[in-house]
Protein: AB hydrolase-1 domain-containing protein
Amino acid sequence: MKLTHTPDKTEVFRERFVHTEGFTTRYLEAGENNEATVMLLHDGAWGGASDVTWGRCIPILAERYHVIAPDFLGFGGSDKVTYFDRSTYAPRIKQITAVLASANVVEPVHVIGASFGGSVALRLLPTAPFPLKSVTSIGGSGGLWKTHVMQDQLGRWDGTHADLARVVRYLMTETDEFTTQVELRLKWALAPGHYRALASAAMPIPDALRNRQPDDWLDQLRETVTPTLLVAGEHDELFEHDWAARLAATIPNSKAVVLDSRHLPQLDRPDETSKLILDFLDEADQ
Structure:
């Protein structure tokens, strides 16, 4: 395991690269190392990356926490890798575990994920390979209760700026930050290998070849004790409207909150979402 880093890009976070098992992961780090650690997991839409999903929240969270925000393999500045022989979540969990180890984080971690990152966070709950202090999922259901819009609209992109804007409209409303969000995503979406990594992972396969092994994740959730926050957007078209309430009824130590936003409240309402997160982290810390 080899860790390298670049000089500070901003006063808020530091960009680092860790090399494990033959692949390179880019991650952002902010805050003081002697504070409790918050790990931020980004969404899986075209052009997703740590700074794209969490750029407006990192400065707020870093005032009180040590923040680590990795780019999943296939995204951002990490290597463009897609696995076809294992579950969607297992390689991501292995990757973020290696990032925490490289940063010498051994204490329990608050994990906060958005959309696909939220699903990865929830998949940690039953059998996390590192200690959890809390889990927050924003717009991520663990892979369940998706609407047809998710696959029909987010699963495709024609490579143009205009079509990427179409995708982003499902993630957030057209506020003053909308254009900035599209530009940030376009930078990473145009990175060599990103399109193929995402498009190949979403490639449909015949029903006869699908893995039909049962997924007992929901049953396992009933035994978890980790404090869990589930945040849904009131105007989200990508998931069934009551996904958060369904999960909250299954996870013992959890609560669901609905915000006036589209799919990703931290893009629509970063201050309100950050306050909600910080209040929840305070409860979990106590």
User: Anything to note?
Assistant: Residues 1-10 have pLDDT under 50 and may be disordered. The first strand starts at residue 2 and ends at 5. The two ends are 34 Å apart (CA to CA).
